Every structure is written in C-alpha cells, then in structure tokens.
Description:
Chain A is mainly α.
Amino acid sequence: MMQFIHKYGSPKYFYQWSYGWQRWLTVITVLLLGFGLYQGFFVAPPDYQQGESYRIIFIHVPAAWMSMFVYMVMAVSGIVALVWRIKVAEIVIGESAVIGASFTALALITGMLWGKPMWGTYWVWDARLTSELVLLFLYFGVIALHGAFEDPRTGAKAAAILAIVGIINIPIIKYSVEWWSTLHQPATVAKFDKPSMHISMLIPLLVMALAFKTYFMALLFARTRTEVLAREKNASWVKEVVEQES
Amino acid sequence: MTPKRKQRLIFVMVLIVGFGAAIGLALFAFQKNLLYFYSPSQIAESEVEAGQMFRLGGLVVEGSVVRQSDGITTEFDLTDTAGSIKVSYTGLLPDLFREGQGIVAQGKINQQGVFVAQEVLAKHDENYMPPEVAEALKATGAKHPASIPKTTIN
Amino acid sequence: MKEFFDMGGYAFFVWWSYGIVTFVMVANVIVAKMKRKRIFKQLQELSEES
C-alpha cells in the first residue's frame, strides 16, 4: 500500500501514467454526455407531477453528488499529503478544490432554478440547502488557504487540515433530509434495488452521473499534470518533457 | 510505517474524531432549531406557543380545498395522517399545490385555531414516473407512494 | 420543435440550468488548457536561459 502510494505519487511517474487516463476519460466523457443528454431530453417521458421541469434533475443531482465525491477525494489526498508528504497529493488538494467548488455552485444554482417553479421559492434555509452552502464555503476556504503561503507545501498542509476537518459536513448533507424536516425531498436513488424513479428516467440520471465523474477525473488529471510541471520546473525530466512536447 | 508518520496519522484521526464529536453534540443540542417545519400533530401537542410565527408542514387533505369568493384566498386542511389543522392563505399558490400533495406554510395560528399562512411552498416527494405509470398505479388501486412529511424527532 | 424548446412552460428554468452548467463545465476545460499553455511557455523560456 505504502509502496503503491509512493510509486504512483512520484511526480515523474504520475506525469507518465496519467496521460493515457486523461485521454481515455475525455473520450468516455464526451460519449456519456451525448448519450445521457439524448436519453434525458428525448427518451425520458415528462414526470406525472412536475411535467418537463424535472429534467433539471439530470444535471442537478449529478452535480450535487460530485460536490460530495470531489470533497472526499480532496480530503483523502489531504490525509495522504499530511501523513506521507506526497507532493502530487498536495497538488491534488488545490486542484480538486477548484473543480469541487464549481460543482457545488452548479448544484446550488440548478437547485434554485428548479425550486422556484416547483416549491415556489428560489431559496429556503432548511438543513439540506444550508449544509450544501457550507460546503461551498469550505471549498473557498481550502482554495484560499492553499494559496495563502509563500511556500506552497505549507499552504497545502494548512488546506489539508481544513479539508479533513470539513469531512464532518458530508454526512450532514447526505442525511440532513432524514434527520430533520426539510423542504428538500429525501434521496431518490438511496437504495439500488428499489430507486423511487421509473427506469426510463433513471437511466439518463445514472449516465449523466457517470459522465460528470469521468469529466471530473479527466479535468483533475489535466490540471494536476500542469501543476506538477510547474512545481518541478528545475527537474531534468521536466526539461525533457518540455523539449519533446514543444 | 515510520514513527513520524504514525504520529501524523494519529494526529489526523484525533482531528476527525474530535471535530466530529464536537459538531455532533452541537447539532444534537440544537436539533429543534434545525427542523424546517412542524407537523399538525406537534401543534396539537402544543409544542409551539400561541401567536408565534412558525412553519407548518403536511399533506393537503383531499376534497378540503375551498376557494373563497374574493378569488385569491384558499382554505384547506393540512394533515400528517395523525393530526389535522385548518389553513387559510391569501395569495398565489405554487404550481405543485394540489390535493394530496405535501406543502410547507409559514404563518400564525389565530384565535379561531386556524393557521393563517403568509407563504405557502410546495414540498414534492422523491418519486418520479411517467404520467401513464401513475395512472396505471391509480387504476389498480395500488396505494400511491405519496410522501408523508417526516416530523418525528428521535 | 417549438414544443421541445418550450419545456411545458418551464423553458426559462430548464434552459438556464443547462446553459449555466454547460458554460461552467466548458470554462473549466478552457481555463485548464490556458494554464497549461502558460506554464509550458514559462518552462521553455526557463530552458532557453540555461
């Protein structure tokens, strides 16, 4: 396990193996997005209660899932960075924070645009919406801390601690709709054997969720690769890479 | 694992557990403030003081919706299947407002025991299906999986 | 066709949602590409100096 972390986390080796992954994930993302959007707009029927407006679910729910998934990726790399001092993990904290913040903002915005026609309001301060907003501020905090120090490694350590402490917000978001009374409805896809959704609507939702996940991974690889080069600018392998690719 | 790393790992564990416990206790202490709305049966148990502004959530009782002659005032009964309370609201209702549907209203209880709402929001459930499937479910007499707003505090 | 874009009267909410999501996701990719270009330029200058 430790050997694995050290091997795949070495800047040079990471830069090599991540290239293929980034390529393929990009291709898969485009295919999945095309299929998911086609299914979501042309195959899935309107909802019996909400009519056509429910189609926002195909981007709202994947964005909300990603807001939490990316946070976990960020927090785990925070632990790896703090305990094993892996440089690539330190970089991943900052890069995933930016992507996670954008997913969180998208979940909030699409939720507001869905809430207005259905609930009758853009925003309420119920436990689900409030905890998701807290998540956005946690991301902002991590981004700010990551860049607040002269030495990027000190910044990464500070950001890692905030990211780890903020993990507590993830179960709060997830279970807020069960623990407290909220305006937001409970989860539709809570149990995989029996989701509360017709199969024709469930397929585009899951395809879009997968597309968002591969999009995130491709983008994270791309951003991290660039940052690895920038941090290792004096290493000889970086000079070789620059010569080869230019 | 080197002792140094072990030490750091323990630090991380303590950080997570300590912070988790602190937040957990705080949420437990403020549990009631985190409720977005109360249910009709909680009102019957007089958990809310008279004249106090609060939110009330429940299902609109089928057949109870009455439009007043002024055209914009609506009266209906709200239930959580255990208790029920009369609600009066003057204003535009959201698209999803219909009999049997969950709503959350904000307002006060007047002397006649009627909840006078200033705002009514629709609360939809987590079920999504095509209209034909919903019709078929109704036709076979299967109980429609309507959402009963959760109100109990454990 | 018109019916499709009308989204049962919810066109404003549906299309703004999809529009904003598309904008942010595309912008994320463009920003990443621009940064890569910028870093490469810096690295090239660095290797030319030495």
